[in-house]
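User: Fold both of these, please.

Assistant: Here is the first one.
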Amino acid sequence: MTLVKIAYTTNTGNTEGISEYLEDAFEDLEMEVVREEADDIDSDFFEDADIAIVATFTDGDGEIPFGFEDFYEEITDQELEGKIYGVVGTGDSELYPDFFCEAAHLFDKALAQTGATKGAEVLTIENEAEGEDVERINAFAKEVASK
């Protein structure tokens, strides 16, 4: 069975909610899913995964959230060749128009350096997932899984 690992961090609960939607979407595709908060994982979290997913918000002026900093700094040292990855970001484009979901794009670049294959374009979501966002999350999971 395909193993999907989802690493997430949350501040307001929006990204945690999105990670739960991702978990449901991959389980609906009959995949095994492990979902963990960034504070609870090490840099080798994706080592045994077939699919690696990062779900993050962006802190301050386009920065990686505090709870994800160590993981982010160490991820490029991992060799994830043969694995598929995807990144989902949450943000507020009204408060941070210049840095909307910047941390997700930084993770996308970092994961590309590991040798993993990008499964889908970065999915960005305004604040919490609602209505069409859930459909976009399901489509994202299907696209990643199809790789």
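And the second sequence with its predicted structure:
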Amino acid sequence: MSIAPEAVRREAVAAWLAGSLNRPRNAHQEWTAYGVALLALGRRFSAVRLAEELVRAAARSTDTAAVNNALHGPVIHDPRGQWFYALVPSAPPVQDLGPYAAHLGLGCYLGVPRVSDNRPDRLASYWVIPPSAPGALCDPDRVIGLIEAGSAALGEGGASG
């Protein structure tokens, strides 16, 4: 019996994400027990927190296809808090992200759902776009472009450099 390629990919991605912790096993235990693990940001990856209204304004929708077309990388949606989290490389941004976005890096933690949790839920965080491979992240320039487009649509100044 062989393991499906998709299961192998998910396991590799989960191992890479869990590696953000000093004790990666803790992440796997939290995913099993709670469906979400608290992962350290700023080492392997950081996140840009995006207001749901910003994403909706920029992508003219918050569905998977629209967000994927805008960001082309792993994105988590927290429907309770009305936030999207785009996973990006660890380097801090070189500019102000404006009132609808924030860079979360070293010293921050993010609740990350199991890699297989990609179905919308009214209460629990899920992957709008799951990671395609270990280390595959959103391009920061695309994230900035989304922030600028959404801010302009909302009538705000947007990110500035």
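Residues 64 and 128 are 6 Å apart (CA to CA).
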